Amino acid sequence: MTSFYGRFRHFLDIIDPRTLFVSESRLKEAVQLLEDYKHGTLPPGVTNKELWGAQKIKQAIIHPDTNETIFMPFRMSGYIPFGTPIVVGLLLPNQTLASTVFWQWLNQSHNACVNYANRNATKPSPTSKFIQGYLGAVISAVSIAVGLNVLVQRANKFTPATRLLIQRFVPFPAVASANICNVVLMRHTELEEGIDVLDNNRNVVGSSRIAAKHALLETALTRVVLPMPILVLPPIIMSILEKTSLLRSRPRMILPVQSLVCLAAFGLALPLAISLFPQMSEIETSRLEPEIAMATTSKTVVYNKGL
């Protein structure tokens, strides 16, 4: 987990859509197997492969702070299958004002729920903060997207073809900026109250607002990187594919092909983005509040950055 490649391989397990179909009984078996391993009471014959399989299931489904099951559509393993139809909608050509508002609203609604479900949950977060973050993200995304679309429509110096191409890239700045608002507003409580930091033995040292700032900054950066391949590559690829004789003669295939292109881009972008930083990030105690540094002999502590 200290290397990008190691985190990339780890998060490929976390986002594996097959974990969405794990039954409740199989989840309980996996959790129990890991508990037996922790307490040195493993039944004979259990292999390392079975232990890693159990770890994969638990990490994909159970929140690390609350130990509660994350609702299926809002797990990282559900981000691609549930998010791809929204991405396809965002990138549809010839968007009307109503369709732009609808797809931006749906995208930020999904993002808000994913951010909340995968937040650092060492401190309780009131429902009012969720509503505040949700409204802020939706309003910012819709405002930016509609504003950019209006500017493009009024840019008379562009040809209709150029205008259509530019419009296809409008979702990226709208989504990227709204994602930052979404993360900050959805997790604003962490900035006010701090998040738990743990020593080498995983004991809670204290609550740090500085660590919370680092956690939100790292998560916000992943949310800017994430939509880059998803919302930039498909318009480029589709503008090339739509000129081929295959799609010119079969216009009904454009939407299915665009869906496949978006799915591939999403599948590449998600593990790359969330692998930028480890979920359990490390920070030197000297960079934290004085009371945190005085409360432990450890030179570094860790915190759950959230996803």
From TrEMBL:
<feature type="transmembrane region" description="Helical">
    <location>
        <begin position="253"/>
        <end position="277"/>
    </location>
</feature>
<keyword id="KW-1133">Transmembrane helix</keyword>
<keyword id="KW-0472">Membrane</keyword>
<dbReference type="InterPro" id="IPR004686">
    <property type="entry name" value="Mtc"/>
</dbReference>
<dbReference type="GO" id="GO:0005743">
    <property type="term" value="C:mitochondrial inner membrane"/>
</dbReference>
<feature type="transmembrane region" description="Helical">
    <location>
        <begin position="82"/>
        <end position="106"/>
    </location>
</feature>
<feature type="transmembrane region" description="Helical">
    <location>
        <begin position="164"/>
        <end position="185"/>
    </location>
</feature>
<keyword id="KW-0812">Transmembrane</keyword>
<dbReference type="Pfam" id="PF03820">
    <property type="entry name" value="SFXNs"/>
</dbReference>
<protein>
    <recommendedName>
        <fullName>Sidoreflexin</fullName>
    </recommendedName>
</protein>
<keyword id="KW-0496">Mitochondrion</keyword>
<keyword id="KW-0029">Amino-acid transport</keyword>
<comment type="similarity">
    <text>Belongs to the sideroflexin family.</text>
</comment>
<feature type="transmembrane region" description="Helical">
    <location>
        <begin position="131"/>
        <end position="152"/>
    </location>
</feature>
<dbReference type="GO" id="GO:0015075">
    <property type="term" value="F:monoatomic ion transmembrane transporter activity"/>
</dbReference>
<feature type="transmembrane region" description="Helical">
    <location>
        <begin position="224"/>
        <end position="241"/>
    </location>
</feature>
<dbReference type="GO" id="GO:1990542">
    <property type="term" value="P:mitochondrial transmembrane transport"/>
</dbReference>
<dbReference type="GO" id="GO:0006865">
    <property type="term" value="P:amino acid transport"/>
</dbReference>
<keyword id="KW-0813">Transport</keyword>
<dbReference type="GO" id="GO:0015137">
    <property type="term" value="F:citrate transmembrane transporter activity"/>
</dbReference>
